[in-house]
Amino acid sequence: QVQLQESGPGLVKPSQTLSLTCSVSGGSIGSGGYYWNWIRLIPGKGLEWIGAISTTGLTSYTGRTFYNPSLESRISISVDASKSQLSLSLTSVTAADTAIYYCARGGVIVSSTLDYWGQGTLVTVSS
Amino acid sequence: DIVMTQSPDSLAVSLGERATINCKSSQTVLYNSNNRNYLAWYQQKPGQSPKLLIYWASTRESGVPDRFSGSGSGTDFTLTITNLQAEDVAVYFCQQYETIPYTFGQGTKLEI
């Protein structure tokens, strides 16, 4: 059974960088060729897909990223296969970035559903 | 971006009755090459993360009770829950995964 667990600071000041980690257990993040995603639940607005990164045994596709264009200039998603961790970096945060952040596993192709989710971590942007 | 619009925003249904939630996409999520609708439904109970219920618009995820069913094609979709149980209280989201960025409906809150 795949399990995901997000971690990171619960409070970030405006204009700073938010950094979150997602630890994957029950299977290596680097095996299976899945896409690993970040999604956030914004209060009063609903779910927003942030981006995804692929992990495959094919060197040419390892680490390929897909970002939401609305956030692309501020986000970076990476994988550390040795630690089985997924990371998210979001720069220049504002109050609008206050949300519950989730990591989730997608499929082996980019157009896939999200079948395993972490419990989520609340991030508040405030001075 | 494909805009997903759900209706209603909230819904109160009696135990044992049927709940119907609609989802409309701003453009088709039917991929002609494989004739599949890239539409999923998720259930989010209070304090929990979303759970995948339905994919390809009508295929139940493993372990999901057959009280849950999905239908529709192209731009109009429906999630139907029959014989409503107390544990079905949740927010339900539709999601299209045909085009990046993936987008979700605003959610429908189901109450007893």
Low-pLDDT parts of chain A are none
- Overall pLDDT metric of chain A: 90
The biggest sheet of chain B, with number of strands, parallel, antiparallel or mixed sense and barrel status, is: 7 strands, mixed
State Rg of chain B: 13 Å
How large is the share of residues in beta strands of chain B?
over 45%
Q: Kindly name the structural category of chain A.
A: mainly beta
Largest interface: A-B, 21 and 24 residues
Give, in order, the helices and strands of chain B: EEEEEEEEEEEEE
Can you count the helices of chain B? 0
- Quaternary status of these chains? heterodimer
The helicity of chain B comes to under 10%
- The helix content of chain A, as a percent range, equals under 10%
Percent of residues in beta strands of chain A: over 45%
Blueprint (SSEs and pairs):
The complex is a heterodimer of chains A (127) and B (112).
Chain A: E1 3-7, E2 11-12, E3 18-25, E4 35-42, E5 46-54, E6 65-67, E7 75-80, E8 85-90, E9 99-105, E10 116-117, E11 121-125
Parallel strand pairs in A: 2-11
Antiparallel strand pairs in A: 1-3, 3-8, 4-5, 4-9, 5-6, 7-8, 9-10, 9-11
Chain B: E1 4-7, E2 10-12, E3 19-25, E4 30-31, E5 36-37, E6 39-44, E7 51-55, E8 59-60, E9 68-73, E10 76-81, E11 90-96, E12 103-104, E13 108-111
Parallel strand pairs in B: 2-13
Antiparallel strand pairs in B: 1-3, 3-10, 4-5, 6-7, 6-11, 7-8, 9-10, 11-12, 11-13
